[in-house]
């Protein structure tokens, strides 16, 4: 897609270290954590930009700095040309932020929470109510619009919080795991609404996720984070090209792998093993040979299931040396 090149977000060499935990006499404190370790990212206008990585990679720390909520130790953050390290108060006019926890509006009904947020973002009463009604319909919140947030299920409450993030037309939406706890219908409604803000109003979106499937389908570009650093940044397709033509072979054994079969023993060295599941990255020819070996010979009786797939972002992540814990597949 043709996009204007203007940067909406530009961070340069951000460093943030959380200080060491306090020690009680005789007990060791927690060490300091460098949660941002020289992070430079640029988000363009009209782009859905993802931050992907396992728990503790530094995604939330980064978005809290680019929303002016957390001051970096060093480095710069510019949003639409405004220096948010110097002027964090300007963030409220430039962006809407949905954090992981959002309990400030818990006492209000869904409808009032959305309307109040719209008013706080400067809309006149009539306009605020019009936007409220639009977003409530868009996210199919009508049935629960009259109920207080604190009495909703986790997924419903999250959806109501997304609704508050979408009113008031901010040019930048920063969403930290927006679809946590939602069912597939709600998730689809959220992605459609986010995409509409981008397509119809040119909004830009920074989206934190550790859901690999979600990342592949909705994001234009992805920064892969690990231990406070961006270890790769590209389109999902560009990232997948890093792992070349390799395919992924998953083998699931009924009880245990038949290591007495020579072909299976040969595969063991390169397999990432998780219980009864082996995962291998192989060239297409090697994968064909492996499938022939495990489905044709004596290994077949021990095999429960197998799948052959083109690379996913998870494979990219592994190839880059990342850790898999916390990367969710569903
Ligand atoms: N307030 C804090 N004080 C001390 N350490 C912190 C604080 N907040 C985060 N950390 C640490 O900083 C690192 C990065 O945390 P952060 O929340 O940014 O990760 P994340 O990628 O958003 O993780 P998750 O996917 O679990 O939300 C982690 O090691 C975390 O334990």
TrEMBL record:
It is a peripheral membrane protein. Pfam families: ABC_tran. The lineage of its organism: Bacteria, Bacillati, Actinomycetota, Actinomycetes, Kitasatosporales. The keyword DNA-binding does not apply. This is ABC transporter ATP-binding protein. Residues 9-252 form the ABC transporter domain. The keyword Nucleotide-binding applies. It comes from Streptomyces gossypii. GO terms for molecular function: ATP binding. It is found in: Cell membrane. CDD domains: ABC_subfamily_A (cd03263). Gene3D superfamilies: P-loop containing nucleotide triphosphate hydrolases. Keywords: Antibiotic resistance, ATP-binding, Nucleotide-binding, Transport.
